[in-house]
Amino acid sequence: MTDDRAPASPLSFPTSLGTSDAEHITLLGRDLAQDLMGRVTFGELAYRLIARREPTPGQSRLFEAVLIGLADHGFTPTAIAARLTYLSAPDAVQGALAAGLLGGGSRFLGVTEDTGRFLAEVLATVSRPPADTAAWDALAREALRERKAAGRFVPGLGHPVHKQQDPRTPRLISIAREEGLYGPHLALFEAVGRVHPDVLGRTLPLNGAGVSGAALADLGLPVPLLRAAVLLARCAGLIGHIAEEMQRPVANDIYLAVDRNAYYAPLD
Predict the structure, then answer these.
(1) Counting Cβ atoms within 10 Å, is residue 17 exposed (0-12), middle (13-18) or buried (19+)?
(2) Rounded Cα gap, residues 51 and 16, in angstroms
(3) Residues 86, 103, 110, 238: what is their CA dihedral angle, to the nearest 10 degrees?
(4) Which domains does the chain have, with CATH numbers?
(5) pLDDT tens across 194-214, in order?
(6) Would you say the pTM of this structure is higher than 0.85?
């Protein structure tokens, strides 16, 4: 679609996101005030921005369920980092929020992307998805054996708190099935859950971050942006921690607990 308001300047910076003039604000080719505000949820807008397409009601439901499941999980390192940064610089809320988001790595929050990437790599080795449970299990077993032989970590398995079952996992799988969005990434992820004890020698739960990665991949979101979707969700949770820190502070107690119990230990 040609933008009649495109500048005549030789410089040109095309975007399909947001533009504005004196009378209008346009986002994704829609009038922000008239077509989007009060008509779509923030989750639906986020999906459009990430996937570059409008979600169906089912896609929106699954996407927002993933966001809710990843918003907060208690006093995780990222939440503690946000609270301690706010304690140090209460005049800069953005610093506290950024500190928490910067902790989204391979152990916390990044698992969603890592799992989606792992599943996508395995699926890329086959010309078409397996036709039955036995075939899915065989594909998962081979992938786990290769990963174990290479000494590589299997993302999406295990949780520091939920030792038997992460309650988010069956719920997201159920929503995906209800909405007809249960795809190959979720199918492979469940197969990993079935066969990994035989390959790895121990039984671990399929965690919520991993199933979120599988669900987002089945929604067609680009794998390199899966962590970004997690950070979007966790941003809300971190704001909640900062808000609670303002009303019921604990960061100073955390700081003092470490500082007052620190002792000098010479290097070996």
Answers:
(1) exposed
(2) 12
(3) 0
(4) 17-54 (no CATH), 111-225 (1.10.230.10)
(5) 999 999 999 999 999 999 999
(6) yes
